[in-house]
Amino acid sequence: MAVKDLYDTKGAVTGGGSPDWLRSHEAADDTAPAVQKLLDAGASMIGKTICDELFYSLQGDNHHYGTPANTLAPGRLPGGSSSGSAAAAAAGLCDFALGSDTGGSVRIPASFCGLYGLRPTHGRIELAGAMAMAPSFDTAGWFADDAELFKTVGSVLLDGASRTAPIEKLLIAEDAFALADEPVADRFLDILRRAGDVVSGSSMIDVSSGQFDLWRNAFRIIQAHEVWQTYGSWIEIAKPNFGPGIKDRMAMAANITSAELSEAKPIHDAARRHIEGLVPVGTVLCLPTAPCVAPPLDLAADALAEFRARTLSLTCLAGLSGLPQVSLPLAKFDSCPVGLSFIAWRGGDEALLDIAESMAPFREN
Amino acid sequence: MAVKDLYDTKGAVTGGGSPDWLRSHEAADDTAPAVQKLLDAGASMIGKTICDELFYSLQGDNHHYGTPANTLAPGRLPGGSSSGSAAAAAAGLCDFALGSDTGGSVRIPASFCGLYGLRPTHGRIELAGAMAMAPSFDTAGWFADDAELFKTVGSVLLDGASRTAPIEKLLIAEDAFALADEPVADRFLDILRRAGDVVSGSSMIDVSSGQFDLWRNAFRIIQAHEVWQTYGSWIEIAKPNFGPGIKDRMAMAANITSAELSEAKPIHDAARRHIEGLVPVGTVLCLPTAPCVAPPLDLAADALAEFRARTLSLTCLAGLSGLPQVSLPLAKFDSCPVGLSFIAWRGGDEALLDIAESMAPFREN
After folding, report:
1. For residue A98, is pLDDT > 70?
2. What is the ipTM of this complex?
3. Which of A135, B7, B191, B358 gets the most CB atoms within 10 Å of its CB?
4. Nearest Cβ partner for B256 among A229, A258, A265
């Protein structure tokens, strides 16, 4: 396995994608429990992987360390922030890789690199010995190219309240598919039709009631506020030399006001209730993981901002609700991978791993 | 007893000193546990009392409802925010009165109205059914004119981890006394000398290491941030017509940034550790409750701001540390009451009530 450089491993300095963080911290005394569990279960670690600087990006590039190669979509971003873990697993350097997901950091690289990727139910996998980002949304997560191994990793990592149940109802988030590039959305809907026997009883729904922008913005504000509570003191003391995108986002994070935060919180609560209400035990929600295939490495800043907003509109659903989401590498478009996602009820992580297995035959080569 | 209009009493709308809050809320279904305990112990309630609007002032005036009369210092402020409770107890309308203290709202009116007043250890008295303000600092509290009854109320209200011990050491906070008007400070130091037999083994210390401004500002920022998290959503919807001082403070609260908050938190932590370290079990810290007697009702805005800053420098010690503080009505100056305070260790509330009793013979008439 490969391990995102957000998890402590005994004797190594955890770097979080930031050379200044690496320089100003000591080697870890202990290995993070999530990593240790995998080691105890027989995994061997090939190394720790590059990630976006302090995890604050979905792109997968790193101004200081370079951009991990997306071997399945050459010339394109790997997606982030768990970029190195996804790139390593996609290139076959390891069988599976540990990442983490706050705003999409497992799901997006899984989609762009053609891997299975899970963002677990918030709180189901212990994050002790892992660098925090925005604790209200932080989760672990992992990647694998093989659905069976992907599930086995889950049996080692998943803790806490599990609620498994057969899938009886599939909701297709029509407005989420509408956010995706049309040919990508069409491809997914076609796969869903072909997989009709696997997950039957589907219906189209409007998942956001037109509130994607509101939800995404509430997510952005709470995340930014928490990021600054996590890293602000260090930033003010260490004055790290941030790469361009993260520098702007950290400045934004420092300036979130009490008023913005208090406006965002009830929106967060309402979104969580709404999304939870959609997926009672036995119901899953299907949506595109990302709105498009991996953008090219040289995408312009304004196009990146637009990519980021569209993507966060999709990823904030699981973020705000704390529900588990799996991304399945079912399709390719223009020979670039793109992932199809399912969100389940709280504790329904195992049901998502079962979906990954049962949908595997529909994966395009 | 009288009860600050921050506590629910079954069938009445809790108003929090704000006519707009009163108008926009329903009658309480239950009586707050703190009030109920006192009723169950045999107290009868004469009514609920005016307080500063949403508790966000130390002055004790209320733009909408008027200013409760300070009968012991006519023409002067009663102190707030538990102004009505203190005024009622001082005027003999009740034997004791329930207040609450976030930034000094029991201690300051106790000082200005010539009453015993306790801010308990943070968390020792349940605040269910009480309007929140800034939960990191919110406590209950009460007033009485009689030291014995003052202690009896404590035996009914105080819950949770009590740690009683004889007082073996008295620290006199020299820099806190230096913040007070000189004749007031001299009067207190004289009382302490005369009371030498009651609390022996005293020594002068510098309590703040020159950090009063830093601590007060950290308190202000965290309080403001939490006040906005408590009331911001309502304020944005209800658009209440705030009185002049509170209007400015709420605007300030709305604009606290993530950066200000993250700078304030380590200062809060350091202050808490420092102050806790000064008062191990058996040691109490003596300081003036307020820097002066009650200001006149017509004090100019700039003088009020200066009064507020000097006062918060003293009151933030218990606020930041969460430690209990008692104010004793021992002195009068220019025939206006002024209180002497003792801060004890966490859970040492009962020891402070004992000090109140043993110091009662030194009260000036």
Report:
1. yes
2. 0.78
3. B7
4. A258
